[in-house]
Amino acid sequence: MNRYKDFCNKLYKIVQSENVAVDEPMKNHTSFKVGGPVDILVTPESYDEIVKVIKLCNEENMTYYIIGRGSNLIVRDGGFRGMVIKLTKLDKIKVEDERLIVQSGVDLCKVSEAALENSLKGFEFACGIPGTVGGAVTMNAGAYNGEISQVIESALVVDKNGKLITLNKEELELGYRMSAIQKYGYTVLEVTFKLIKGEYSSIKERIDDLTKKREDKQPLEYPSAGSTFKRPEGHYTGKLIEESKLKGFSIGGAQVSEKHAGFIINKGDATAKDILDLIAYIQNTIKSNFDVELHPEVRIIGED
């Protein structure tokens, strides 16, 4: 990694050395537990550090990719050339009346817990969605008839040039699994959610009910990235896969979950290639059987 020696020396002037890892296996940073090494993994601790790291990448022509907990990500087995910036150390939540001001590295389940503790209603849908606030806004994550667009007021982001921008709800351009964050390559630093006052007991009851549904219906005991595919218009992905008799179908260590056909799971020894081959097999089968195109919801980066 001598080719990055000068770059790392500049990086150490921005972030502490313990927050920089070289040749870091990405399987340690994704919920699928697969992925080859990234050249440099950095975990900034402040907005200022993130801005400076992005500016350094621009100056040095270094490719970078932003992650939270890697819960919606497949890194190919050859790894990622460049830098991964992991935002999980941005982990603060502030409560102001009916607003939650949340840093992008906070887990969604922690946000739902904070909402519950303050008897704030509207965030229950996200109580079991894996991943962090930054990723949830980027993808406009949703479940059980709720989505981020229903509760977000604004977001503080940094653009590709390292400039801080505050975007309101309209400017975020939130659609089905899409946003201005993806469109313009922004990095989410902080999000303000606007909720409404409710009763603690009814909010808790809703969270408990959704938690039980997830535990009953989803293969939470295995590494996965949640729902693998976006929902095609007019169809349910899991139903199409089940009707194609692919439930339980495996390639290598990757398997279509027997519990929920919309999930691909890592049975323990899957490679990224196994998972990607299984995704392609499912896509081809559904296209052949129903003339329906399935598009992955999960992000795919890196090289073979």
From TrEMBL:
Keyword field: Cell cycle, Cell division, Cell shape, Cell wall biogenesis/degradation, Cytoplasm, FAD, Flavoprotein, NADP, Oxidoreductase, Peptidoglycan synthesis
Active site: R177, S227, E297
Subcellular location: Cytoplasm
UniProt pathway annotation: Cell wall biogenesis; peptidoglycan biosynthesis
EC number: 1.3.1.98
InterPro entries from the UniProt entry: FAD-bd_PCMH (IPR016166), FAD-bd_PCMH-like_sf (IPR036318), FAD-bd_PCMH_sub1 (IPR016167), FAD-bd_PCMH_sub2 (IPR016169), MurB (IPR003170), MurB_C (IPR011601), MurB_C_sf (IPR036635), Oxid_FAD_bind_N (IPR006094)
This protein's record includes keyword Transmembrane helix: no
PROSITE patterns: FAD_PCMH
Necessary cofactors: FAD
Primary location: cytoplasm
Gene Ontology molecular function terms on file: UDP-N-acetylmuramate dehydrogenase activity
Catalytic activity: UDP-N-acetyl-alpha-D-muramate + NADP(+) = UDP-N-acetyl-3-O-(1-carboxyvinyl)-alpha-D-glucosamine + NADPH + H(+)
Domain FAD-binding PCMH-type: 33-198
Family that this chain belongs to: Belongs to the MurB family.
Purpose of the protein: Cell wall formation.
Protein's name according to its UniProt entry: UDP-N-acetylenolpyruvoylglucosamine reductase
Origin species: Clostridium rhizosphaerae
Biological classification of the source: Bacteria, Bacillati, Bacillota, Clostridia, Eubacteriales
